[in-house]
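Box 3.1. Reading complex inputs
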Amino acid sequence: MSDKPILRYNANERTNHWIVAILFIFAGLSGLALFHPALFWLSHLFGGGPWTRILHPFLGVAMFVFFLGLVFRFWRANFISGNDRLWLRRIDRVMRNEEEGVPPIGKYNPGQKLLFWTLLICMLVLLLSGIVIWRAWFSQYFDIGAIRLATLLHALAAFVLVLSIIVHIYAGIWIKGSVSAMMHGWVSRAWAKKHHELWYREVTREDPPAPGTRKKG
Amino acid sequence: MASQDIIARSATTTPPPSIRQQEEVAKLIDTTKCIGCKACQVACSEWNELRDEVGHSYGTYDNPHDLSAETWTLMRFTEHENTDGNLEWLIRKDGCMHCADPGCLKACPSPGAIIKHANGIVDFNQDHCIGCGYCITGCPFNIPRISQKDHKAYKCTLCSDRVAVGLEPACVKTCPTGAIVFGSKEDMKEHAAERIVDLKSRGFDNAGLYDPDGVGGTHVMYVLHHADSPKLYAGLPDQPVISPLVGLWKGVSKPLALLAMGAAVLAGFFHYVRVGPQRVEEDEHPGAADTSVHVVDPAVHVFDPGKPGAQGEERP
């Protein structure tokens, strides 16, 4: 077996991911500034309250647009399938770093897949409700009842999104090798086999079985 | 009646100065005495240096058509046919009600942009306003307006500047029929009670005071001939309350949400402390015996997630 690493994310995918991540940080911090008085000081990062109010929706729309890019790249790999239900039932073992009885899974584990769909729903709710409460451009077209509902849904979806991203970031810290997979794209074969065995087999099946021959000194 | 004390402040979670006991003020608008002359509108725009656009006629006497950032009070005219088939011309001076429990203040995210004085006046501080429009979302009376010129919210101040130096609001001073009066809230209630007795003796059995409990009472009150049906008066809400959606949005849910976010971060930290990271041991690596530095083959296989068949493969 070859020991050359596997490309998990190509440069376009990585760039797209980090653009969304950066926009999430800015949209998230500016949104949290308006979320609760305890966090209003965050508005200073954006040049004060009015600038926070002006920038937040544009950051949000940009985040949504680039997130759509990720959706188009990854949605096919995110259907719950095969061993996923069993994996979810054994989530407690996964959480304890135990491998006994945890079934092999594909390119994404079911946690990642659920995260994907949760993010997509949150992003859609945030976009649609955000348009309704975007006072400078669109609010005049909506009834006050719709605006009140949209305001509530916007805060709720933002809350779920932030929680999901906290889980997402922690998973990256916890599972060593996944941040570098998104940073420079490569994962070791051992990593792929350990965490995404079905994907590993899928990828290596097409590999030319010529150990050593391609190695350059 | 002057007051320096601010007893409520938007986006502020600590107690306001509340040692001094100060008398609450109120403006009483007697719709039964109003002749619809609009002198109050003119006085408002004169005193506050507001000059709204002339606008267009929409087939009613309402002019301008609606409240705006430059029109803080507006006479609304309603033609009402009563049960006897007689026409009644109901005229209501619309504007901020200065609620005891202001929905605008509750919704505002900017500290100090909306304040409530100890005398009951609810005031917007445009210097702290960020222009988000949450006050509009919170208001049960549809009063605040965001200016398209400066993106700040405006509404009636109850002439807080005049009241602070012992003067009555400009609209009160100018009203030629005495339909608008101003004083302590207790005195205004007493005055209204006399008016209501008089109106009932003249056949308006449902005459009454509009000082709705749902928002804790208001510091602008109406005497209505038809207090049983305030909505006759150009949609004055029968039972105004801060919308439960706003209550849910601004109530206990947000501190809880913040707590949950913090708890999630802590949960991650302690998971790391107790369970630890997942590392791939190199001896799990099939080819790990060879520890020499290897050069990555530039022709390495690229996996395309766009190609089908990445999942569902059964373990042999």
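In summary: Confidence is low (pLDDT under 50) at residues 210-217 of chain A.
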